[in-house]
């Protein structure tokens, strides 16, 4: 049943059972795309882990990665040793192989959300699922990895976005991400209402959005470069301490500016296939908006991340970042 969970979610077929046993514990299906794994015994290093994928329906590699982890659990190659909430974010968008159906789910994770519609309802359901899960494990260190893939190529194909929130990121997280072959980290500069931000802001979780290569349809993903990330997820599922490496292996950036789309008449002034983290020199015009005017790089170069001129009005059309120092170990 476990390994069929993803297929059944894609087919919108209700599974025959809402729970059962697996090596090292039990599973419970709380709602479509919301699966909780409960260990018979938590290992001492275990985190309470939220692992989500498919928040954008066309980002399939992370869904396959979670599927592989479940298959290994079910086959007895891994023994569950930590509480885990596994989430397929937007099953309807997954079925349509679209980023979203009506609106971008990953901008809706706020407690004062009052919009109606499929994605707002889904955001409310997922926020409740995360609240309930973390409240069951008050003694555990909390963690949320929200797994994505990017629309464009990237100078660093695998990178982490660290949400902005008060909770400090523990140094071991940088070590784990470096060992998982994450190549760059982007620190957010302000609240962003993404899923990983929700867990960090409201539950003090160690939380990241992880970009794991480029968005491709099911069956077209090469999971080989994600093998080190699979090892990290498996260690978390087993409640073991993951391997670490020096964070200096990764390049660090901080968002300096968020480029917003204000009007219908908006364009980015560089090629559509410009890879993430491409740097633009001072004086370069990056955007033209009928309402906000033009945006030109000022005195320091800026690197562009997630450029997308086709976003909804009022939404982020790109992040502009500058290099940041690698974090030092507080000891
Ligand atoms: O490649 C793109 O333009 C988008 C990839 C993606 O979905 N990224 C996330 C990042 C979330 C964050 O800022 O933490 C998103 O845009 O929701
Ligand atoms: Zn995404």
From TrEMBL:
Q: Binding positions for Zn(2+)?
A: 56, 59, 148
Q: Where is the AstE/AspA barrel-sandwich hybrid domain?
A: 249-323
Q: One Pfam family this chain carries? A: AstE_AspA_hybrid
CDD domains to which the protein is assigned, alphabetical? M14_ASTE
Name the cofactor(s) required for activity, per the record: Zn(2+)
Zinc: present as a keyword of the record? yes
What role does it play? Transforms N(2)-succinylglutamate into succinate and glutamate.
Name of this chain's protein: Succinylglutamate desuccinylase
Q: Which organism is it from?
A: Billgrantia antri
């Amino acid at each position: 049943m476990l390994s069929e969970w993803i297929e059944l979610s894609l087919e919108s077929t209700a599974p025959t059972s809402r729970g059962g046993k697996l090596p090292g514990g039990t599973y419970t299906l709380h709602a479509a795309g919301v699966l909780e794994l409960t260990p018979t015994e938590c290992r001492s290093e275990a985190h309470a882990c939220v692992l989500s994928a498919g928040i954008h329906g066309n980002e399939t590699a992370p869904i396959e990665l979670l599927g592989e982890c479940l298959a290994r659990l079910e086959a007895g190659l891994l023994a569950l040793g930590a509480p885990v909430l596994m989430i397929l974010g937007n099953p309807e968008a997954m079925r349509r192989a679209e980023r979203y159906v009506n609106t971008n789910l990953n901008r809706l994770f706020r407690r004062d959300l009052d919009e109606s519609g499929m994605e707002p309802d889904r955001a409310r359901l997922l926020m409740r699922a995360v609240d309930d899960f973390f409240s069951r494990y008050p003694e555990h260190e909390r963690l949320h990895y929200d797994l994505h893939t990017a629309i464009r190529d990237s100078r660093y194909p695998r990178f982490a976005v660290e949400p902005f929130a008060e909770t400090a990121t523990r140094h071991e997280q940088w070590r784990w991400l470096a060992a998982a072959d994450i190549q760059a980290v982007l620190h957010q500069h302000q609240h962003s209402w993404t899923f990983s931000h929700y867990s960090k802001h409201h539950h003090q979780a160690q939380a990241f959005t992880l970009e794991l290569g480029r968005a491709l349809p099911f069956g077209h993903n090469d999971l080989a470069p994600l093998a080190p990330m699979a090892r990290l997820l498996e260690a978390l599922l087993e409640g073991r301490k993951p391997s670490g490496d020096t964070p200096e292996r990764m390049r660090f950036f901080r968002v300096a500016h968020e480029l917003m789309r204000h009007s219908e008449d908006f364009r980015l002034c560089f090629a559509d296939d410009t890879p993430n983290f491409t740097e633009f020199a001072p004086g370069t015009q990056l955007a033209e908006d009928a309402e906000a005017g033009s945006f030109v790089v000022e005195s320091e170069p800026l690197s562009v991340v997630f450029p997308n001129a086709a976003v909804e009005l009022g939404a982020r059309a790109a992040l502009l970042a500058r290099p940041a120092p690698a974090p030092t170990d507080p000891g």
